[in-house]
Amino acid sequence: MRVVVASTYVPFIKGGGTKIVEDLQREFVSRGYETETVMFPFDSHWRQVPEQTTALRLFDLTESAGRRNDLLVTIRYPSYALQHPNKVAWFIHHHREAYDLWGTEWCGMPDNEEGRHYRAMMHQSDNLYLGECRKIFTNSQVVADRLRRFNNIEPQAVLYPPLATDHPFRPGPFGDYIVYPSRLSRIKRQHLAIEAMQSVRPPLRLVIIGKGDSPKYEKKLRREIQRLGLQDRVQMLGWVSESEKARWIAESCGTLYLAYDEDSYGYVTLEAFHSHKPVITLSDSGGPNEVIRDRHNGLVVPPQPEPLAEAMNRLWQDRPWAAELGRAANATLNKFCINWDHVIGSMVA
Which domains does the chain have, with CATH numbers? Predict the structure, then answer.
């Protein structure tokens, strides 16, 4: 069986959207499928989306090198515009500015005649090309709900993306810091963790791992650390290797994931679960709340600095209880069938 895994990507940005493609291709190959990955560079600015979607539509991946491709699996928007008679979408998110983020502080599209016109074009093309798919899976219940709400499409099932089989994440001792490993972005809300540190009792520290979407937000975070006098208690490490990130998570007393209305649970949550560490998330974080249960395998608190600080203090003050949460977090992986056999079996069935 010949399988094509296709997606779009933003050049020089490596995140969950590219990782899921790499992992999926590797897992197909390990099971004996002849597999090719096709990645299309994509500019996510709203004015460019319709034109680039039209360009993708010109590609027919039914055959290549004189042989039939049996299955096309599309990932990131709008790769489902590609032509193939046996097309399966693993739909990980819309162009969110035209959907759930429309009219919010996170939206860069103007609410005027031009913006509404482009928004309508995106909705129409998504409805058309997703309607061609033999199956549509989502990476979370949040995304499934958005498909129902905005596109009147009922997905087959939620397939939670697992980590790569050879991932380095493992349990370790409970150290004297909370770690937040994620791309630095205003919507990931690292600034909220820094504000909370004013009320976190020493010697507990905060370690932030990741690079920013732009230098502007990263500079803002560093200025805030200076302004609040937290230089000795908040570290910003920037980019680190996967093995180094695994060590930081393994030796923490817990992990943060504070994104606003996230598409899925986020790889941060998954990495922490594999490391037997509880995750603190926020009540408006979206996807993480599908798998994180308050005081069972993590903590869910309102999106304000004070309750966030209280949650961080609790993990530090009662590390035996934090360890219990971490064991329950690891057991959550089986509860939600977060494994590659389940993903591949669902796609080829």
Answer: 2-159 (3.40.50.2000), 177-335 (3.40.50.2000)
